[in-house]
Each structure stands twice: as structure tokens, then as C-alpha cells.
Design a protein that fits this description.
Distance between the termini: 116 Å
Oligomer: single chain
Number of helices: 2
Strand content: 25-35%
Number of strands: 5
Number of domains: 2
Order of helices and strands: HEEEEEH
Helix content: 25-40%
Strand order of the largest sheet: 1-2-3-4-5
Shape: rod-shaped
Length: 127
Amino acid sequence: MRSDLQGHSHRSVDSKDFVIGILSTTAAILLVGVLIINTRPEPAWADGMTTAGGAYVLTVGGVSIADEEHLYVLDTPAERLVAYRFNASRQQIEIAQGIELTDLRRAAAQSTSQPRGKRPASRGRRP
């Protein structure tokens, strides 16, 4: 009878040790997860940064509608503005849009040189 009691207590200690081992392993895994999450570097944001080098002016800006970051490059001798965006799904930089500034300047000059029309007569009564 005594050997039966010793066997029972031995099984009880084994199951307690097993539970303690499982809980300790789980706590260690959770601790590593918390450390990984809290030690990740923050992303670098360069919104509004501008620099010039030679004949180029570069500036960075974000588009809030599409949640994208754009790099704008102004090529002053060619009078061209090009916007580049980063495509995260392809892991590459793509041209978003290019604008010829000479065409833009010409269109602006034409619109200001044309006479403006007369104001339409008011439909309401004048006091």
C-alpha cells in the first residue's frame, strides 16, 4: 500500500512539472514576441524634405488619398517635373506622372492673354 502512495505522488509531481514546463515555455515565447515588437526600428519619414544638386531639385511628399509617398524630381534644364512612387507589392519605384513645364507655362500664358467675357447680367432685382 505504501508503494502505491509513493507512485501516486510521483505521478502528481510529474504532471505538475509538466504544467510548469509548459507555462514557462509559453512565458518565454511571449517575452521574445514582446521584445521583438518593441525593438523594431521606426520607419523613416521624409515628408517635406527638399534638396538640390546641380540642375535637379528633389522633394518628397505624401498622397493621403492613396497613402503613398512620392519623390518629385525637377529637371531645370529640361524644364520637366517627374513624380515617382514606391510600389510596395512589386518592391520597385515607378513613374507616377511627368509634366513638361514648358507646355504648362505656354497654357498658362494663353489663358491669361485671352480677354475675359462680360459678367452675366444679374437676374435678381437691384435695390
